[in-house]
């Protein structure tokens, strides 16, 4: 007999996905003896059997693992035959030095759904039903390995029935760590906004009644609180906007099922697949004309953010007559999402009328991910629930931490030549968000056992993330903001050779001390040369100008010496005069090459938005009004100074202003402006390629959230046979900065 023994380590997303039970059952089938165990975040096997049986067993568990598992690496060592008599699942052990992979939170599976709606099932209407194929993972995890004692479910002891399922190799809840039922698991309850318990026999039915009566309910979900209301109730939505101080920013919707989503939006095959996936993100979809949904849900937008239910609790909320709920982050404007019960009552009581709470702690808050489809590709706008932690290869031998930007913040850790990207955290200038940022870093450092020797941060020392870098030990690497943008896309697409990087965004400190944002680089992961940019303009008003685009418009038309005539009539003459005087005297001014600010300028000139209430609102609304049938564009000029190309904005703006004077429709002006920026970008790239002989083109920065502009330049370059790369899995906005910082740190350390 050809008896053999092997020690096998399998790394990847292999915990919390039913992998050990699967291995156990396959071992029984192939007559394999030995044991399997969690070690750190890996699965460790010690197996014996006949050579062919072992080969067939390994092919089965590696090539056809459970659906949720992702295998990254396998190590196999031959050992002396020992003579095991059976196969067992052993207790887990820790491994501080090994590779670590952390499972994501997963939407409710069909089998659990069937139980929830089966009146004869013990888990009928139970909102915490889960199994090895679904449920909470990352949001409840305190430490590795992923075992119940290391999660917030450790507070709940399994009843004999659940324990029986947990220990039964034939049961789909075999070693399902959050396993529970109504007899032993968490429970839900309703409170008033004063914190008093509402007496009721069915808290979920009570919540349905409240929503149907037009109440706003703060609902504790998988990764934090949502503020929910009936999406068909215009007055309630207006009240929610007023209480939350969110006058314009679109609200997300959760709809009962895919049929309701189709009634409200145009949905293609790829979008439908993403909506129905076990990640269940918010997907940005083209609106249909609707008589049932108020415009207040997403004012001035062509798209709606739509998601489907992803926990048993969500499915149960649609048992009433409501088919669509506003489901927006449970926070005050600009603050982080609430996830702890006491703080939620304290911070949301002036917004919500009632609270639907539960008593299972959330250890790591996670917001809903946001996805759009561009050129038939899934593109992440916000990487969060279901998509984090995001693990990617990065060739750095030192353990490292990259601290990200200040807005739309994330951070990255590196260990054992893998990078770990955090969830979206928000604007660090908010005190509470900064606290969550510090806690999230601490959580990931503890999960990984990380001892960073290299700390990468933004070149702008005034950023709170950069100041945080000074509080921790390690070699500091300051990374220019737009270089980090470019390299984040290179890391995503595993590019190492030189690229032409086109980075358009709103704000980032340049190496000359000015504000950059309309940049053309030639470079690698380690270094870059600035070979082109939008011509500088002097903008008055500091940070206030970003919130008041009329100041930006005045700054631009002052720069081109245009007489005001028919534009900016909604701004009072005294304010205009004050800003002009300040520009003449260079008071509270800064120089900027930002493409984002140029978009703000045109939006203000068209009188779309003189003051914004959320990030990039003016530019977003400018894209939303454009008429895609308009193909014309404005004249433009590319100059050159000291070997650096410069896009002169004067002729572009003069064209815009003439069309406004001639009363051309704003939708046509917007289209012509977008076409112009697309064409001048294509010409800049062509000139740079001819000079530097580089064919790889990388796009990054928040302006490329603009689907029309991104599609325009990608299509134009592919016609010219360029190799074009843009963000898909790593957000193009500042959420991706930390990935780029890590890539640059790896290159500087000589390994990237």
UniProtKB/TrEMBL annotation:
Catalytic reactions of this protein: C-terminal L-cysteinyl-[HypE protein] + carbamoyl phosphate + ATP + H2O = C-terminal S-carboxamide-L-cysteinyl-[HypE protein] + AMP + phosphate + diphosphate + H(+)
Chain ranges of the YrdC-like domain: 201-386
Acylphosphatase-like domain sequence ranges: 5-91
Organism superkingdom: Bacteria
Keyword field: Ligase, Metal-binding, Transferase, Zinc, Zinc-finger
Pathway linked to the protein: Protein modification; [NiFe] hydrogenase maturation
GO molecular function annotations of the record: carboxyl- or carbamoyltransferase activity; double-stranded RNA binding; ligase activity; zinc ion binding
Record InterPro entries: Acylphosphatase-like_dom, Acylphosphatase-like_dom_sf, ATPase_NBD, Carbamoyltrans_HypF-like, Carbamoyltransferase_HypF, DHBP_synth_RibB-like_a/b_dom, HypF_C, HypF_C_2
EC number, as in UniProt: 6.2.-.-
SUPFAM superfamilies recorded: Actin-like ATPase domain (SSF53067), Acylphosphatase/BLUF domain-like (SSF54975), YrdC/RibB (SSF55821)
GO biological process annotation, one example: protein maturation
Family in the record: Belongs to the carbamoyltransferase HypF family.
Name this protein carries in UniProt: Carbamoyltransferase
Organism: Geosporobacter ferrireducens
Upper classification of the organism: Bacteria, Bacillati, Bacillota, Clostridia, Peptostreptococcales
